[in-house]
Amino acid sequence: MVKRIYFFTGFPGFLATRMIARLAEEEPESEFELLVHESAIPEAERVVQRLRGNKRTKRFRIHAGDITKTNLKLEKAVSEQLKETVTHVFHLAAIYDLAVHDRIAQSVNVTGTRNVNLWVLECKSIERYVYFSTAYVSGDRKGTIYENELALGQDFKNHYEKTKHDAEVLVQYMRDRIPTTIIRPGIVLGDSKTGETAKFDGPYFMMRYLDKFSRMPIPYVGKGEALINLVPVDYIVEATVYLSRHPVGEDKVYHLTDPNPYQAREAFRLIAQALTGKAPSFTMPHSTVRIMLSFPPLRKWVKVEKETLDYFRLEAVYDCTEAQRDLEPAGIKCPDFADYIPAAVEYYRLHRNDPAKLIEVV
């Protein structure tokens, strides 16, 4: 029976936790070394307890550390031992907030990735390095974006995109030295079957917006002709777990995006009907909504970051030919948005007042 030693950053984040749970179920002999920032250790311990269930096992080991520090701030003896045994490194830790300040994004996304890269290069048993990027490293590019493209002189809509681009550039340099798989997800929604998600950010800002206007005529935001690329978390997990272990995934970059994305206007209509029971009935200019959200009091009331609006005007199409081709033998496909959005909306409806899931808008 296969035994791998997995090293994760980004735990106890939702995506890392889901991935670890999937791997642990499929590989009962494998072990998991979890790098956790000191501030997140209490939550990490709770999540590990859930992963263990009723079993008395030491498969899941938490290590206090910090990707922004040299040697990941691991104790020297611990670090040296891990470098001898770890076979797979999953680097998911990052700042994903679209409104993040440059200094913080640089520290975590760029410096953090540089430090993880340096650590991985010293791992003697490494079989695969899996780095989580984003489809939006494409910045303001228009037209078809291919999986083998990265730095083509684009500008960026926010510090999140810029720093994730710069971090991926660093990882790209690793590809001829370490077996590497780069994952570029689209905008991630909750589980396609249960709707479960950890935070109501990203596309959930649309639902928070609708909450404020549900008792009055609902406006579309601009023409909404852009294709908005939404993908459920279970597709990301299933695809990544497969590609990270299969030889076909070595030295590849994958767009884990929807091959048949909906226009933003149609996606918004489906969400509005599922959440409020009615469709939008008129169009408010994009510029008007952006001006409104430029005022902090109004932005806090609506609970929507103004940076979210940029993705309603994105003139990019994310080609995912490589991902589709390599996932086809495993029968892994991205579900259709219209089929799973009712589950996402229902989960939001049940948990929208849960403070642990709300993202503060400033």
Question: Which descriptors apply to this entry?
Answer:
single chain; 362 residues; alpha/beta; Rossmann fold; 2 domains; seven-stranded parallel β-sheet; two-stranded parallel ribbon; 12 helices; 39% helix; globular; NAD(P)-bd_dom_sf; FAR; Linear gramicidin synthase subunit D
Describe the structure.
The protein is built from twelve helices and 15 strands. It is an alpha/beta fold and 362 residues long. It folds into two domains: 211 residues, 3-Layer(aba) Sandwich (Rossmann fold), CATH 3.40.50.720; 131 residues, no CATH class. The mean pLDDT is 93. GO terms for molecular function: alcohol-forming very long-chain fatty acyl-CoA reductase activity. This is Linear gramicidin synthase subunit D. Pfam families: NAD_binding_4.
Binned, the helix content reads 25-40%
Biggest β-sheet, characterized? Answer: 7 strands, parallel
Number of domains: 2
Order of helices and strands: EHEHEHEHEEHEEHEEEHEEHEHHEHH
Coarse shape: globular
| Distance separating the two termini | 50 Å
User: Under the CATH scheme, which architecture of the largest domain would be assigned?
Assistant: 3-Layer(aba) Sandwich
CATH H-tier superfamily of the largest domain: NAD(P)-binding Rossmann-like Domain
Q: What is the topology, as strand order, of the major beta sheet?
A: 3-2-1-4-5-7-12
Please report the number of helical segments: 12
* Number of DSSP strand runs: 15
Class computed from helices, strands and strand pairing: alpha/beta
Q: Strand fraction band?
A: 15-25%
Query: Which stretches are poorly predicted, pLDDT < 50 over at least 5 residues?
Result: none
